[in-house]
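HUMAN: Mind sharing a backbone?

ASSISTANT:
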Amino acid sequence: MRRKLVAGNWKMHGLKADLGEVRAIAAAVPGSVDAALCLPFTLIASAVEAAGALQIGAQDVHEAEKGAHTGCVSAAMLVDAGAGLTIVGHSERRADQHETDNQVKAKGEAAHKAGLRVILCVGETLEERDAGRAEQVVTAQVAASLPEAASAEWLALAYEPVWAIGTGRTPTEADVAAMHGAIRAKLRELVGGEAERLRILYGGSVNGANAASLLGCADVDGALVGGASLTAEKFVPIIEAAAKL
């Protein structure tokens, strides 16, 4: 049985005035589920002090250890700030910053080398899904982005149907189960038996109302949550739904 993981991604939201929400979420984390918040770099150190059992992470990391990379943050810097994990390959980074699979793979490897856990994101656009290429696109991303020495000890994947993020549109439970099954099958090809231990999160407009049904789908081991993770009022019900499964 893979332990559920519910991770929130605050994206470009959050000031020190919002640390009360971090404390409220941390206070509600049950012992039967893993929960994390991936925050802006500026909040990580402050949030760690308030986190308790709640894991604090980053939303991105640079693949280089150090150097002339203005505005970027290395894995060692994240560790120094107190982060325990980071997201890599989020769909917004892939689209807006034009990150490639090779870059995402390198970021995951750099994070692991520094001792961070990693959530690796993959997902398809509406055009790719409508063209009948969704599984082909996503499994190709898995193969090209997967870091070396992938292990459930430090790596989880997150499937993001890009067309469902922030739109209120959600794939059917059958769609979710089918894609997660395809990802699991690709992982079996790539890492053998370790694939059964790797957690695959679902990330696409998850909220308190649909969390139980989505998290109950086959091969769904948790959720990567965007807007609904910004407040305890909206995020805690998702964590509670995961704890009941």
Notes: Residues 38 and 57 are 4 Å apart (CA to CA). The radius of gyration is 17 Å.
